[in-house]
Automatic annotation (TrEMBL):
This is Nitrate reductase. The keyword Nuclease does not apply. Residues 20-76 form the 4Fe-4S Mo/W bis-MGD-type domain. GO terms for biological process: cellular respiration; nitrate assimilation. It holds the Pfam family Molybdopterin. Belongs to the prokaryotic molybdopterin-containing oxidoreductase family. NasA/NapA/NarB subfamily.
Length: 909
């Protein structure tokens, strides 16, 4: 077992890992791209610390990064290749993939096969995957989960700049006077970058404005929150452009020297105006005008945007509406100013650089440009080159469903859970004649694989990733791959060789792949393309191994040791005439509402989980924050649908259903509900939100509108509810509702069923016996029953130790989860403690820590409240007493909220 802990228990403070100890690598989660120092210990555990020298994080890590050591165990890891569910040799598995792909292409043409890849692949993996499809198979049917993530930003950049360029850098968030977060919950999704911003705010009073339909941890830390109507961002920024023009904020010199087409964009903006923006956003004109004045009056302004912008059927127009305002004021490419698309995945940017999207070529070259196609084909010496766009993710799965695609290879993504209309995607996979999946664990997608390939995971593989500020960092291996797992790039090259392309894929190392990629970026470039890392094309193996984080562009010809930190302050766009384009963004007509599905389903992320939980789901600390699928709903909507807080609800759309726990809160907007994207069939009965989500896409980018599906909601009619703590993972979970989460020393389980159970004691012992056959014979079962009121409680012991406990009630179980879970760590409880356990109430000497707030130091809400009651009057003071909020800082907003509610009565006195 490689289960590890982080530096806290290893004795180092956060960010204080001693220099030159351990292996420097990069975090495998978000696009901030933090540097990590990983130090394997002799007992197999791995200490994780922030890399103090990495320019993305300077030593900081968030809760997810800090808990990486807890995700490295081998539970569920794929260790050997499988064909049709049977163990197979690598040779047989690779041959089966190559032969089936080749035969399908021979029989049905190159477009009958496809690769569906991921922004979590390393650049080297991604480069060879793209080369294989576009240059050797001769189809552009390679698309990526970045289609669900960044495609609208890419399209918006290309429309405006002629290239997919992020013009700014992280330090701009520290030098700006105003940072606007549009559709970005930066505090939870890019926590370390948010902490840099929060520090700047504390230091120099940076103003923060959040534009998000619901209140979030980010909006709580902002000076102004505009709770806009869903998808009204185009109107908001069109109104801003109109305001900027009226107030004389145009940078005429910049507009005239470096841009084109301002007039049509201004005409659309005038047509919208303040009144149009107020009508569309639902924000009153005074409040909106205050925001416009702030933006207009602050030259150093960065507009940060993310999925509330991209994941929309008008996503590309949202991006254009934002960029228009920056071009109009010349606030781009300057210190502290610019539009800033923050990327989600660790290598979203690298994937764009190699051309991993179906409508791009390689090295930011264009599939539509015959000159570019020729350049790439000659460079690759390839027999063919794709000459038209391939199928984008949503269309790709439609083509799988209707049989146009007959062989599909999925790498490093879990589309059975993350694609819109996910049930249809699953059905497509189930009917596809040939599905290959490369993953590190079993998932809802791997179930459908004819060939399953075990990939080497983070810490075992080596290569590069590019973060949101165009910075390339090394991921380095510090563990040997387990079992027979292999690096993705090698698997792809081995298949390519067996398809007859050995020469072009004869890479001996990831360094060789990187050199070719870097050389291609410089090939025939001469400043005509933004992405140029020719300066890295001659790195020797040792220099590649030691490569320090470096921002692109990094052309061979650059005299300076570093490329420019920002682009476009002096124009130099990558259109033919080197001018940027304004893009008119007329308002789209409002979508017709469907009275059968009156609510809008907004979806997104929570602080401590990563996507489909294949790694964060292994960490008890991370699972402790929010342990089951939740649905945020406004009190008025909850009342209208007879939904009580903490009850279970069923959500329904024309595409599917989902069960979740209701969180009734004014932070949610009326008419909308919010659910996290994370839960899968591995963790809950019906927790897959994408089963509900509609697959309508943005017409320009092909990105689906994952934040706006029509749904309806109703109470889930449960006959009984249960909560259990378990030493072992239960064998069977045949309940209408269940949600399972890892806890320290075992598992925690939420349960409910529509049918009355006639024997709860049997149900309990079945849960407690785990995988052990006949194990129940050894159990000592303690019970409490109140049949009249429907309360049943059981606790089971083996050799004096607690094996499990369950509390059953007719309604949601009112037992403190935090207190109960801690009982798993207790040594052989006897007498009163056992009875106390059944009562479900904390004793004075075992105080209930309350819901987990700080995952880094495992501090609960009650502990924080106690610190406040004893006099801690600020977030810092709370940190000084109980440590909460003093590591990654992602929970500081929640601590602030507890402070505010607790101080209210005091202030009123
Ligand atoms: N903890 C955690 N962090 C992550 C990830 C993770 O899984 N977990 N994933 C990473 C990835 S791949 C990505 S892409 C990023 C995503 O990072 P974010 O984009 O910050 O995250 P989301 O929660 O998807 O969505 C952001 C916000 O958009 C809002 N929104 C919805 N509709 C609209 C709208 O019409 N207009 C506006 N203005 N806002 C709207 C939502 O209410 C939500 O609060 O996070 C990255 N970081
Ligand atoms: N409703 C809704 N849906 C969404 C979103 C949303 O906001 N709302 N967000 C969308 C966005 S922005 C994104 S980025 C996607 C993310 O969705 P996915 O990409 O489907 O999510 P992950 O869980 O990150 O999947 C990564 C998979 O790769 C595996 N893996 C990890 N490391 C390796 C490796 O080194 N090699 C290989 N071969 N496999 C590996 C993991 O075990 C996991 O199964 O979801 C999208 N879907
Ligand atoms: S902010 Fe957190 S998840 Fe993102 S790269 Fe840094 S440590 Fe990893
Ligand atoms: Mo993403």
């Amino acid at each position: 077992m490689l289960a590890g802990d982080d530096t806290q228990s290893g004795g180092h403070g956060p960010g204080l890992a001693p220099a030159n100890a351990g292996v420097k690598t990069a975090c495998p989660y978000c696009g901030v791209g933090c540097g990590i120092v990983a130090t394997p210990r002799p007992d197999g555990a791995v200490d994780i610390g922030g890399d103090a020298e990495h320019p993305a994080n300077f030593g900081r890590l968030c809760s997810k990064g800090s808990a990486l050591g807890e995700t490295l165990d081998l539970d569920d890891r794929l260790l050997v290749p499988e064909i049709d569910g049977q163990r197979a040799s690598w040779d047989a598995a690779l041959a089966r993939v190559a032969e089936t792909f080749s035969a399908t292409i021979a029989a049905h043409g190159p477009d009958s096969v496809a690769l569906y890849v991921s922004g979590q692949l390393l650049t080297e993996d991604y480069y060879v995957a793209n080369k294989l499809m576009k240059g050797f198979v001769g189809s552009a049917n390679i698309d990526t989960n970045s289609r669900l993530c960044m495609a609208s930003s890419v399209a918006g950049h290309v429309r405006a700049f002629g290239s997919d360029t992020v013009p700014g850098a992280y330090e701009d968030l520290e030098t700006a006077d105003l940072v606007v977060l549009v559709g970005s919950n930066l505090a939870w999704c890019h926590p370390v970058l948010f902490q840099r911003l929060a520090a700047a705010k504390a230091g120099r009073g940076t103003r923060i404005v959040t534009i998000d339909p619901r209140a979030t941890a980010s909006s709580e830390a902002s000076d102004l929150h505009l709770a806009v109507a869903p998808d009204s961002d185009v109107a908001l920024f069109a109104g801003l452009l109109d305001h900027l023009e009226r107030e004389g904020c145009a940078d005429r010199a910049y507009i005239e020297a470096h841009t084109r087409d301002a007039e049509p964009a201004l005409a659309a903006a005038r047509a919208c105006g303040l009144a149009g923006a107020a009508a569309a956003t639902g924000i009153d004109e005074h409040r909106l005008a205050a925001f416009y004045r702030l933006w207009a009056g602050t030259p150093r302004v960065v507009t940060v945007y993310s999925q509330g912008v991209n994941q929309s059927v008008v996503g590309t127009d949202k991006v254009s509406a934002i960029i228009n305002c920056h071009l109009f004021t010349g606030r781009i490419g300057r210190a502290g100013a610019g539009p800033f698309s923050v990327t989600g995945q660790p290598n979203a940017m690298g994937g764009r650089e190699v051309g991993g999207l179906a409508n791009m070529l390689a090295a930011h070259m264009s599939l539509a440009d015959p000159g570019h196609r020729d350049l790439v084909q000659r460079f690759w010496r390839s027999p063919v080159i794709a000459d038209r766009p391939g199928l984008k993710a949503v269309d790709m799965f439609r083509a799988v469903a209707d049989g146009r695609i007959k062989a599909l290879w999925i790498m490093s993504t879990n589309p059975a859970d993350s694609l819109p209309k996910a049930d249809a995607a699953v059905a497509a996979l189930a009917n596809c004649p040939f599905v290959v999946v490369s993953d590190i664990v079993r998932t809802d997608t791997t179930r459908h694989a004819h060939v399953l390939l075990p990939a080497a995971g983070w810490g075992e593989k080596s290569g590069t990733v590019t973060n949101s500020e165009r910075r390339i960092s090394r991921q380095r291996a510090f563990l040997a791959p387990p079992g027979e797992a292999r690096a993705d790039w090698r698997i792809i090259c081995d298949v390519a060789a067996r398809m007859g392309f050995a020469e072009a894929f004869a890479f001996a190392s990831e360094a060789e792949v990187f050199r070719e990629h870097a050389a291609l970026s410089a090939h025939g470039n001469d400043g005509s393309r933004d992405f140029d890392i020719g300066g890295l094309a001659d790195l020797g193996d040792a220099a590649y191994a030691d490569l320090a984080p470096v921002q692109w562009p990094r052309a061979r010809t650059t005299a300076a040791p570093e490329g420019p930190i920002r682009l476009f302050a002096d124009g130099g766009f990558f259109t033919a005439d080197r001018r940027a384009r304004f893009v008119a963004t007329p308002l789209a007509p409002a979508r017709a509402a469907d009275p059968r599905f009156p609510l809008i389903l907004n979806t997104g992320r929570i602080r401590d989980q990563w996507h489909t939980m294949t790694r964060t789901g292994k960490s008890p600390r991370l699972m402790g924050h929010l342990a089951e699928p939740l649905c945020e709903i406004h009190p008025a909507d909850a009342a209208a649908h007879a939904i009580a807080t903490a009850s279970l609800v069923q959500l329904e759309s024309p595409h599917g259903t989902m069960l979740a726990r209701a969180l009734v809160t004014e932070r949610q907007r009326r008419g909308s509900v919010f659910a996290a994207m994370h839960w899968t069939d591995q963790f809950a009965a019906k927790g897959r939100v994408d089963a509900l989500v509609d697959d309508a896409v943005d017409p320009v980018s092909g990105q689906p509108g994952l934040k706006g599906s029509a749904v309806r909601i109703q109470p889930f009619a449960a006959a009984w509810h249960g909560f259990a703590i378990l030493r072992e993972r239960p064998r069977r979970l045949g309940f209408a509702y269940w949600a399972l989460a890892k806890a320290v020393g075992g598992w925690r389980l939420e349960l409910a069923d529509t049918a009355a159970a006639d024997d709860f004691a049997a149900l309990a012992s079945d849960l407690f016996t785990g995988e052990e056959p006949g194990g129940d014979a050894l159990l000592e079962l303690l019970s409490y029953r109140d049949r009249r009121h429907g309360h049943h409680r059981f606790a089971a012991f083996r050799d004096g130790d607690l094996v499990g406990a369950i509390w059953i009630a007719p309604g949601p179980v009112a037992v403190s989860r935090a207190w109960a879970v801690e009982r798993l760590a207790e040594q052989a409880p006897t007498g009163a403690r056992r009875l106390r356990l059944l009562s479900g109430r904390a004793a004075a000497d075992q105080p209930d820590p309350g819901a987990l707030v700080c995952s880094c130091f495992s501090v609960g809400a009650n502990q924080i409240a106690a610190a406040i009651a004893e006099g801690a009057a600020s977030v810092e003071a709370v940190g000084a007493v109980v440590r909460a909020g003093t590591n990654c800082g992602s929970c500081r907003g929640e601590i602030g909220r507890i402070l505010a509610t607790q101080q209210l009565p005091a202030a009123a006195e």
